[in-house]
């Protein structure tokens, strides 16, 4: 009986033979096989989700724009909406008309700026016997701790009631330090607490302008001032930050204060009613945004907040990309994690109105803290470039161009002087959305770095000394520099390569001319990838 050999018949077009096809042809064939049944539906879904998120952000920005115009034109200023009378000396009672105010200055290895905040707090125009300054030093460097303590002693010798406090450990980070500070026996008679980070420098009249809102309005828990940046013109990185933060203070904080008497406490440059802090459950260290956590809890208890856009406090922006990335991780991860922890508590709350719940959950948290980061990265850095490789998937022109243009224009109202930097700001924000999206997902999922806290590096007046030294042709104080290998950010470089390839493909085969945007975005990713964004000096 002869042998019968069985042979599996494979269509010729599906035979992967090295002799007939090279590797590129094989990859092209695999791509064609999976594109129609898998890639196109998934990418189409991604486009729909991205467009939905873009519309949500668009409507939020338009709503904020309309409200801020109405506020500026028709709303009364805080001094008219709330009872406000200046604090005055009384001949009979002396300084007893003035409430006792505690000023807390938390710091951690703040070698360059500790004198600035301590000096500014000590020069506040407030009766000396009604003011207590508390320096909460969590520094780990003994030399810096000694310098801070000596500075406190220097001001104490001038009659300032200033207390230097340290802890055995950094449990709870900033929240832990503030919480421990309020437990001190000499704080029991204080009615209000004013918080300044180590680089913040309030003007002498700060308390006289803020405290009356708390004294004359027993339902007000917080008075928040606006930040002003002493180093905004240092480099392109600081100018980009100024543009983003100015929108936050000019629009978001103002609208929240005027419409719902609620906004997120910025963690510094604000005055709290101590009774409201205790009523809300005190400081908690369950997230890296202890300030926002306290604000939301206090708001759910019925307390009101007042934002003073014309009360400015000088502060410093991170001037190195590494410091900025760490800060943005904390600012993006923390709110997402807090949203996860508090969303049901907000829903079940019986003390606040329905529309305020909607504002806090949808507008304050969901759109601004989650959607805004994700749509910027997912749509403009992932989905849109991928549609170039899959021409079967179309992105409507209104979603790719018109809506982003309107959102960008509305975002620019906070910093008119930087309008000429608007296009680069868009590109830079797209880069940072990569880190913000990653941090947001970490917060929502409570992944590994959810409670990471890296104190933002501050340089104080080191830069001004350097500028003065250059003018005088003397040796400037040396600013710490990273080695080139330490500057490299592989994630940004990887996306730069991806966007560059998509741009090249669009240049050769595309019809939408997206390659212009993609190549410009590639350059921005590359600059941040090699860590030089903080060294570029902008034109005025």
Automatic annotation (TrEMBL):
Q: Does the keyword Signal apply?
A: no
What chemistry does it catalyse, as a reaction equation? GDP-mannose + (glucomannan)n = GDP + (glucomannan)n+1
Q: Could you say which EC number(s) this protein's record lists?
A: 2.4.1.32
Molecular function GO labels: glucomannan 4-beta-mannosyltransferase activity; mannan synthase activity
An example of a Gene Ontology cellular component annotation for this protein is:
Golgi membrane
Q: Where is the Glycosyltransferase 2-like domain?
A: 192-389
GO BP field: cell wall organization
Q: Where in the cell is it found?
A: Golgi apparatus membrane
InterPro entries annotated for this entry? Glyco_trans_2-like, Nucleotide-diphossugar_trans
* Leading EC class: transferase
Which keywords, in A-to-Z order, does the entry hold? Cell wall biogenesis/degradation, Glycosyltransferase, Golgi apparatus, Membrane, Transferase, Transmembrane, Transmembrane helix
Q: Which domain of life is it from?
A: Eukaryota
Membrane topology is: Multi-pass membrane protein
Query: Which SUPFAM superfamilies does the entry mention?
Result: Nucleotide-diphospho-sugar transferases
The portions of this protein that span the membrane are 29-49, 358-390, 402-428, 488-508, 514-537
Name the Pfam families for this protein.
Answer: Glyco_trans_2_3
The family note in this entry says: Belongs to the glycosyltransferase 2 family. Plant cellulose synthase-like A subfamily.
Report what the protein is called.
glucomannan 4-beta-mannosyltransferase
Native source organism of the sequence: Populus alba x Populus x berolinensis
């Amino acid at each position: 009986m002869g042998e019968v050999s069985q042979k599996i018949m494979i269509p010729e077009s599906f035979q992967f033979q090295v002799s007939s096809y090279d590797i590129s042809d094989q990859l092209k064939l695999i791509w064609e096989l999976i594109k129609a049944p898998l890639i196109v539906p998934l990418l189409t879904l991604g486009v729909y989700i991205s467009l939905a998120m873009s519309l949500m952000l668009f409507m939020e920005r338009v709503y904020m724009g309309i409200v801020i115009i109405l506020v500026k034109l028709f709303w009364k200023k805080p001094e008219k909406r709330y009872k406000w009378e200046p604090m005055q000396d009384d001949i009979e009672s002396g300084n007893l008309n003035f409430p006792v105010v505690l000023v807390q200055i938390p710091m951690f290895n703040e070698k360059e700026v500790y004198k600035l905040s301590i000096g500014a707090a000590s020069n506040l125009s407030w009766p000396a016997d009604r003011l207590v300054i508390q320096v909460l030093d969590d520094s780990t460097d003994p030399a810096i701790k000694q310098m801070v303590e000596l500075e406190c002693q220097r001001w104490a010798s001038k009659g300032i009631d200033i207390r230097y406090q340290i802890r055995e450990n950094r449990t709870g980070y900033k929240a832990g330090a503030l919480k421990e500070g309020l437990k001190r026996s000499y704080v029991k008679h204080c009615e209000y607490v004013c918080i300044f980070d180590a680089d913040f420098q309030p003007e002498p009249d700060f308390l006289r302008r803020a405290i009356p809102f708390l004294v004359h309005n027993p339902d007000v828990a917080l008075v928040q001032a606006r930040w002003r940046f002493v180093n905004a013109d240092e480099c392109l990185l600081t100018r980009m930050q100024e543009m983003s933060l100015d929108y936050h203070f000019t629009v978001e904080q103002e609208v929240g204060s005027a419409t719902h008497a609620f906004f997120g406490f910025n963690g510094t440059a604000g005055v709290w009613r101590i009774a409201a802090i205790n009523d809300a459950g005190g400081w908690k260290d369950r997230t890296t945004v202890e300030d926002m956590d306290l604000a939301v809890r206090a708001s759910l208890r019925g307390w009101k907040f007042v934002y003073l856009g014309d009360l400015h406090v000088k502060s410093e922006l991170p001037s190195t990309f590494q410091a900025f990335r760490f800060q943005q991780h904390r600012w993006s991860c923390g709110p997402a994690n807090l949203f996860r922890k508090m969303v049901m508590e907000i829903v079940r709350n019986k003390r606040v109105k329905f529309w305020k719940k909607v504002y806090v959950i949808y507008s304050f948290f969901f759109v601004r803290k989650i959607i805004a980061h994700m749509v910027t990265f997912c749509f403009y850095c992932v989905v849109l470039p991928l549609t170039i490789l899959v021409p079967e998937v179309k992105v409507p022109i209104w979603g790719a161009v018109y809506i982003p243009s309107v959102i960008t224009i509305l975002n620019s109202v906070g910093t008119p002087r930087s309008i000429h930097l608007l296009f680069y700001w868009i590109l830079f924000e797209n880069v940072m959305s990569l880190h913000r999206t990653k941090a947001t997902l970490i917060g929502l999922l409570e992944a590994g770095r959810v409670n990471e806290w890296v104190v933002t590096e501050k340089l104080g007046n080191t830069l001004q000394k350097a500028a003065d030294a250059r003018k005088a042709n003397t040796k400037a104080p040396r600013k710490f520099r990273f080695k080139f290998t330490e500057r490299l950010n592989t994630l940004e470089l990887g996306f730069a390569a991806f966007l560059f390839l998509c741009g090249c493909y669009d240049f050769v085969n595309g019809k939408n001319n997206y390659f212009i945007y993609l190549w410009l975005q590639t350059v921005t990713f590359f600059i941040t990838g090699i860590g030089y964004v903080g060294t570029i000096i902008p034109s005025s």
